[in-house]
Design brief:
heterodimer, A: about 250 residues, mainly alpha, 2 domains, 10 helices, B: about 550 residues, 21 helices, about 80% helix, globular
């Protein structure tokens, strides 16, 4: 609900600020951009709300407790700490050089790194909201990396990770370095962001596919041997850490 | 002699490049050497590897052979070389003279050399053992792996105390003595840089044998530690600088007060059961202070890097001050964790701050809130000072340096006060917990019922305070756009700051969505606008605290009724 008040207000204020700064010449373009931005954030918001609804419906009390404390509070607050650190790097640069142009590179680097952290936090939330079985089937384990035993989707994710890592390291090394040659920073950061988004998208689709598979399997087993079998399966699933969609199907 | 002979390394572009990549090259070589030795070591049979693994318990008790001792010292030197090269690597500047390049190369060579020597030495021994084991069909390793039980550990090996005493004596007595004998201010700067390490070692050796009845060593250690304050006090009284003399006297009394509290804490730790004492010594003392010392080493080497670059510690006064302040924060945090480790599980659950309490705000007292806030401010101060360490003082004027020094000093003191508050509240929680335990043990035992109640108390959503906190963060972002609307001239600075703030606002929104996962099930009407909600942060905090007070009153009434 916070979003409902937050985003339109921000978008309107952004539009007014742009009109105030650039004048009314490009007002149509600014309005178009505002609408696109608003729709994009609205789409993300709806997606997150759906995820939240699924978690709220299907996790049991203990799992909700763990999710809210460990994932949302602890990991959420922990993700704010490196962001604050990157911001301090930029502030330190501003204190040292006194002008914003010299610190543009640092600021961009801080922005990109923070963006990567947000995406990783969101993906962590999405993964942790699933059952242990789904998590195990989706997360890439060390042995897979060592033996290079990947499916196509996992290979794509690993390639994305391999590409985004140098981008992040480059941004890390740009922190605190004076100079206004920010073009490389911007393009590298943007490229890294695209790659991270692609990897996250692949991860998210894997999660959805795996959950749906479990859901189908559960409903199939319900139709065949409804009474005795389904209750036993439910117990098994619950012992396994609780599957969101499977338990939801039975409920 | 050619006038530029000292600068021959920067005379040619190729040499300039060599000087730029020298730290990178050395650090890279060390990383490669480390992974190579590890890869070869891992080729030996797991049984042999297990017998050659050095555990923290072995180090704590000193039950290691001379070879392992050499290995541990070599690894410590390698870590120092790594930290030094990493701090050089982060500066990304040209090394200005051949001496500096020689130092960097030497650090790399020493690091790589020690890694390889220790590795080869170990491989030879492991190879012999493997061959003999194959021939005899049984293990002949000299040092059997020790049991994982922590029951037998009552104190650390005496060498820790001896080393600590020597270092403390050198820092607190040796450096001030050098300063007055040679009248060199730089010794004071060095002492400031080493102060935090000295405090960490003092606490470490102070708590290393809590069951020792004879307190001579402890008092001797304290005398060595505070002698520096006494030396400076007498010097300032002699020179007529009463302000500084008062400052040192105050510090002396502060240390004395902390020492008295420490003695009480030590007695309490001595009364722990054998198993808990072993756990305390290994986890809360050894591991905790090892982590703190690594942090201290890391920031100290950044200061040392500045000293090597500028050639004088006076030029790096601000960087050294930042380093000292951050190191002190590390020590405070380690001390806080140590106090936390001395608590019983029940006391910790009732009295100490935890994420669960923070999440639901129901068992959270004002002290907990204050403690968390202090901890947060200390971390922020530490991060800010760490970022300010990058700034070399070389190109700055005297007035700029003084101004920066005052500013950094204020931040450092703010962090220190917050850290000390956090520590004091943790100590208070420990002693209050003890008192409550004593009272409870004399009364009717109702603990098990209450503990069960606590264990079953699952939460389904975070308290409103957290959501209002995220609302404040996001509202600030929204309202920030009013700045360029009213003053377009601030656009440049505004955009810079907003670039940095955008991800924080986005994270706040993301977390706010998942803070109440069950609220999607109930048909609640839309809440008031987020501007109004953000204004509710303080009232919601007060309401949460009031609720908690009422709950406590009800609980105490219930206990009396029982």
């Amino acid at each position: 609900m916070q979003y409902i008040a937050f985003d339109p207000l921000t978008q309107v204020l952004t539009l007014v600020a742009q009109v105030r700064i650039k004048g009314t010449e490009k007002i149509f373009f600014s309005m178009l951009m505002t609408v696109i931005r608003g729709l994009a954030t609205f789409g993300i918001f709806k997606l997150l709300l759906r995820l939240r609804a699924t978690i709220g419906k299907n996790l049991n009390t203990r799992q909700v407790d763990n999710f809210v404390i460990d994932v949302v509070l602890v990991q959420g607050v922990s993700s704010l700490v490196p962001m604050a650190f990157f911001n301090f790097e930029a502030i330190s640069c501003l204190v040292e050089f006194g002008d914003f142009e010299s610190c543009e590179g640092t600021t961009w680097a801080a922005l990109w790194l923070s963006c990567y952290i947000i995406i990783s936090t969101a993906i962590t939330i999405a993964i942790k909201s699933q059952s242990r079985a789904v998590q195990n089937s989706v997360v890439i384990i060390k042995e897979q990396v060592v033996t290079f035993n990947f499916h196509t989707k996992e290979m794509f994710q690993m390639s994305c990770l391999g590409l985004s890592l140098p981008c992040a390291l480059f941004q890390m090394s740009s922190l605190g370095v004076p100079g206004n040659a920010v073009t490389v920073n911007i393009y590298m950061g943007l490229f890294g962001l695209m790659v991270v988004l692609a990897a996250s998208g692949a991860e998210f689709t894997s999660l959805v596919t795996k959950s749906n598979e479990l859901k189908k399997r559960a409903s199939r087993s319900r139709t065949t041997t409804f009474d005795a079998e389904s209750s036993r399966h439910l117990d098994k699933v619950d012992d396994d850490g609780g599957s969101l969609f499977t338990v939801g199907a039975f409920v | 002699m050619h006038p530029y002979s000292n600068y021959r390394y920067i005379s040619h572009p190729s040499s300039r490049f060599t000087s730029l990549i020298a730290p990178h090259r050395s650090l890279g070589a060390m990383v490669v050497a480390y992974f190579a030795t590890q890869a070869i070591t891992n080729m030996f049979p797991p049984k042999i590897l297990k017998e050659h693994r050095v555990t923290l318990k072995m180090i704590a008790l000193g039950t290691i052979s001379s070879r392992v001792r050499v290995k541990v010292y070599a690894q410590a030197i390698v870590a120092c070389c790594g930290f030094f090269l990493f701090s050089q690597y982060q500066t990304r500047t040209n090394l200005d003279n051949h001496v500096e390049i020689a130092i960097v190369n030497s650090a790399g060579s020493v690091g790589c050399g020690l890694l390889l020597i220790v590795g080869v030495w170990e491989w030879i021994i492991m190879y012999r053992e493997t061959i003999k084991e194959r021939r005899n069909g049984k293990s002949i390793a000299k040092f059997k792996r020790q049991s994982t039980s922590l029951e037998g550990i009552h104190e650390l090996h005496w060498s820790f105390r001896a080393t600590s005493f020597i270092v403390i004596f050198l820092v607190s007595v040796g450096l001030p003595a050098f300063r007055f004998i040679w009248v060199e201010k730089k010794f004071t700067e060095w002492q400031t840089l080493c102060q935090s390490a000295s405090v960490a070692l003092f606490i470490f050796s102070f708590m290393s044998n809590p069951r020792e009845k004879d307190r001579k060593f402890i008092f001797l250690l304290f005398a060595a530690y505070v002698s520096s304050e006494l030396i400076y006090t007498s010097h300032h009284i002699y020179t007529g600088n009463h302000k500084k003399a008062t400052s040192h006297t105050t510090r002396f009394f502060l240390w004395s007060g902390l020492f008295i509290v420490g003695l009480r804490f030590r007695e309490r730790v001595a009364n722990l059961s054998d198993e808990r004492l072993g756990k305390f010594i290994m986890e809360s003392l050894m591991k905790n202070f090892l982590n703190a010392s690594l942090g201290i080493l890391f920031v100290s080497f950044r200061s040392l890097n500045c000293v090597f670059e500028t050639g004088s510690i006076e030029m790096c006064e601000n960087t050294a001050s930042c380093s000292t302040a951050i190191s002190v924060y590390f020590v405070i945090n380690a001390a806080k964790n140590m106090v936390d480790g001395a608590m019983s599980a029940r006391t910790r659950r009732r009295k100490a701050v935890s994420w669960r309490k923070m999440a639901e705000f129901s068992n959270l007292t004002t002290h907990h809130l204050f403690q968390s806030l202090s901890g947060g401010i200390m971390i922020l101060c530490g991060m800010f000072l760490f970022c300010m360490m990058d700034n070399a003082d070389e190109g700055e004027t005297e007035s700029d340096r003084n101004q920066e020094k005052k500013f950094l000093g204020k931040i450092a003191i703010l962090g220190f006060i917050c850290g000390l508050t956090q520590f004091a509240l943790e100590v208070r929680a420990l002693f209050n917990g003890d008192r409550d335990e004593n009272v409870r043990s004399r009364e009717v035992s109702i603990d098990s019922e209450m503990d069960d109640e606590v264990d079953d108390n699952y939460i389904s959503e975070l308290n409103d305070v957290w959501q209002n906190f995220t609302i404040v963060l996001s509202t600030l972002y929204s309202l920030g756009w009013l700045i360029p609307i009213f003053n377009p001239g601030l656009l440049g600075s505004f955009m810079t700051i907003f670039f940095m703030y955008t991800p924080i606002a986005a994270t706040a929104i993301l977390l706010a969505i998942f803070m109440k996962v069950r609220s999607s099930l109930c048909s609640s009407p839309y809440p008031p606008t987020h501007v109004t909600n953000s204004l509710l942060l303080v009232p919601s905090l007060i309401i949460a605290i009031e609720d908690r007070r009422k709950l406590r009153e009800e609980a105490s009434l219930a206990i009396y009724r029982v």
